[in-house]
Fold this protein.
Amino acid sequence: MGAHNLQALLFDVDGTLADTERDGHRVAFNLAFRDAGLDWEWDAELYGKLLAVTGGKERIRFYLENYNRDFEPPDDLDAFIAALHQAKTAHYTALLAKGRIPLRSGVERLIQEARAVGLRLAIATTTTPANVEALLVHTLGAESLDWFEVIAAGDIVPAKKPAPDIYDYALKKLGLDSSECLAFEDSINGIRSSRGANLTTIITINDYTRDDDFSEAALVLDQFGEPDAPCQVLGGKAAVFNGTAFLNVDVLQRIHAGV
Ligand code: XBP
Ligand code: MG
């Protein structure tokens, strides 16, 4: 195999594998605030603004600095935020255990097709490792944790997306060059990170990210799609589909080859 063959797929989680933000993370943050006796309420619109910052702890701090300046912070703000965030993670994983958040259209099919042809799989996300595990276990089953050779998540690198560090870390763990991989993202912070690591990137948009700047993407889709639920090509070279109605491994090979 030459150095330029496609070897691995690197997936973002939130927004890409599943629409987790509005009905998952946001809800869990609000439950944690309520538990702590705080009257903070992040509605769907405010949450869209808070998504400017990745990482839950970083997002809480950003909220206090920009949207709740009257709040008198406790002496140990780091510990206060860490405790809130721990409660949020517990609520979030409990929501996933209830099966509230399904995978997006075409995600399971594409992952299975990739496995069947021997492509290696990895995850590069800013979310907490426990959240990734809960999503995979409650959608694809516990065995799916082993399908991903590298699960790069959360505080494993200090500089979260849009910094490229999490993708650089995942590539290093895989022992691969960016030219041998494709990345899947849904947001501006995500594609800044993946492109910063020099990865050819495929975007699936969602309601929070449809107006983001995806000019650096090889392909912009509304979803991966299924044979009975075609994807819409919103940007990039539609020719790679060559008559196929959804994203499959053949299409990935053509994107990787720069067709
Ligand atoms: C995901 C995030 C995360 C989650 C919350 O971004 O921004 O902060 O919203 O996760 P991306 P934690 O999809 O670009 O990785 O609360 O566990 O940090
Ligand atoms: Mg994302």
In short: Residues 8-18+103-256 form a domain with the Rossmann fold fold (CATH 3.40.50.1000).
